[in-house]
Amino acid sequence: MLAQVSDPLAMVVKQTDDVRIHTFVASFTGSNIANATHIIETQNQLVLVDGQFLAPYAKAFRAYADSLGKPIDRLYLSHRHPDHWFGLGTAFTDVPVHALSETMTFVHDHGEDSRSDHWKLGDLLPERIVIPKQVAAPGEETIDGLRYVFDRVTDTEIDYHLTLRLPDVGVYVAQDLVYSGTHLYLTKHLDHWMRVLQEMLVSDFTLFLPGHGLPADKNEVARNVEYLAAARQAIGDGLAGDAFKSFMLQRYPERRCPGIFDIYMPRLFGGASDY
Ligand SMILES: [Zn+2]
Q1: C-alpha of residue 185 to centroid of ligand 1, in Å
Q2: Under CATH, to which class is 9-268 assigned?
Q3: How many whole angstroms from 84 Cα to the centroid of ligand 1?
Q4: Boundaries of each Metallo-beta-lactamase domain copy (predicted)?
Q5: Centroid of ligand 1 to alpha carbon of 166 (angstroms)
């Protein structure tokens, strides 16, 4: 089924004297999954996080970044799921892309296969893939006067996930560790994922930028922990496939983007792969 493309949202989510942070969210409707990408704007330049999924959203995200009138210094790719990097080939081929080495290797080895596997998306796909060239390693770095802390988080929604924390403004760029107002993409690593979220809850950070949905506070992070606990219980009780999906839809009617079930269930219950 072709995804329906409709109006994305762009918003300023944090503003201080020196820093403005923007979030751009693709549609919540149809089979869209509300991909959220972000811009950290400092005095002289922009740092972007993730490149959107479908071509029209990638182009709109790029147009929004360009409208700020500052050069894009770099883009961080959070992890290897294609809804975060397909858009790089559509709208960011001229931007240096930084990623964990594991993510770079995956896109290098499997990126083109992943693109051809999604042929049903037609002209929503990028014409080419972009392989990240710069390694993002755990640690601290100051970029255009703003302090960043990078972390490599293993075995949660994905095997290797990059997070960015901005301690001076209280912002935690969590991407797919947090699904804000939407159904989560579940894996076999629910216990460890919940521990990572619980660490967020006792941290000093106040704003959590998700990979799907709108910018989140700690209440939403806590709701993610509760969702994962409920899913773990349901799976432990023997629910699988459509029965599991019905249970979760009924338990969380307020959450959007149910299309995610059909993406992860063949992996979680069908043994296609861990992720
Ligand atoms: Zn995602």
Answers
A1: 8
A2: alpha beta
A3: 6
A4: 34-212
A5: 21
